[in-house]
Amino acid sequence: MIDFFEMKGVPFTREIAPHQLFDSSSYKEAAARLEYAVQNRQFCLLTGEAGMGKSTAVRGLVQQLDPVHYRYLYICDSGLTPKLFYREVLQCFGIQPAHRAPEAKRQYQALMLDIYENEKKIPVIILDEAHHFSESMLQELRFVLNFKEDSMSPLSLIIVGQQSLRNQLKIKHLEAIEQRIQMRYQMVALTEEETAAYIQHQLKAVETPHEIFSEEATQAIYQFSKGIPRKINSLCSLSLMDARLQGNKIVGRSHVERVMNEW
């Protein structure tokens, strides 16, 4: 397919280089808020439906973290428990976790303060798939952020999840967690104009020398995907394959509709 369309690589994959990520209005807003939260050691909530680009925004943030000023840890575990959380953080930063939970918590607190006060760096902890967290894990976030009698935080904690996480945190007994969130953002889908620009951006990233998707094909992709980047990627990849199999250099609406009918 790459040779057929004269591309230098495979478009519409998750493997695009961070500097080539598409700057949609939602992505730029998410990136700005994440950056601010990290710089100011805030508790940040990033949400959005599946495929909206949350992980992409996090990846962009991580690529910008200067190791001179930050130390970060990314955890993606839908079954994360408080015990596993402390163990993961301590092991990642080179400390053998204590067997007893209270001691592991004290190790964690000492570690975060040491990184901030002695190393002069900001610890950044990113927890993905947080909409799957148990109530006990969500409750534990209060203690994850509690330092010096709850008077300061040496770290930035970012929790990432689907929109349902926002509703979870509004439950009465989780109100104390919800109130601690200092920065939040809900990612939204691409507009029709952004969808067209996104498709062109992906093709440009692999140095495609000519137009491939017709205007009608792009419209059909937007209508079916509702502007969700992950769906756009799948539709475009399958439509390219369909056009290639039929020997067509241009992806038309018929190719997209054929893919949509098999979805």
Helix count equals 11
At CATH level 3, the topology of the largest domain is Rossmann fold
Q: Tell me the domain tally.
A: 2
- Main β-sheet description: 5 strands, parallel
Termini Cα gap: 21 Å
Identify the CATH architecture of the largest domain.
3-Layer(aba) Sandwich
Q: Helix amount, in percent?
A: 40-55%
How many β-strand runs? 5
What's the gyration radius in Å? 22 Å
N-to-C SSE series? HEHEHHEHEHHEHHHH
Strand arrangement, major sheet: 2-3-4-1-5
Strand content: 5-15%
Q: Give unreliable regions as ranges.
A: none
Brief overview, please?
The chain is of the alpha/beta class and 263 residues long. It has eleven helices and five strands; from the N terminus they run αβαβααβαβααβαααα.
Describe this structure as you would to a colleague.
It is a single chain. The protein is α/β, with parallel strands linked by helices and 263 residues long. It has 2 domains: 25-186, P-loop containing nucleotide triphosphate hydrolases (Rossmann fold); 190-261, Helicase, Ruva Protein, domain 3, CATH 1.10.8.60. The chain is 48% helix and 11% strand. The chain is built from 11 helices and 5 strands. It has helices at 25-39, 54-64, 82-92, 101-118, 135-144, 164-169, 175-178, 192-205, 215-225, 229-245, 253-261, and strands at residues 43-47, 70-76, 122-128, 156-161, 183-186. Strands 2-3-4-1-5 form a 5-stranded parallel sheet, sandwiched between helices. α3 packs across α4 and α9 runs parallel beside α11. The mean pLDDT is 94. Residues 40-191 form the AAA+ ATPase domain. This is AAA family ATPase. Pfam families: AAA_22 (PF13401).
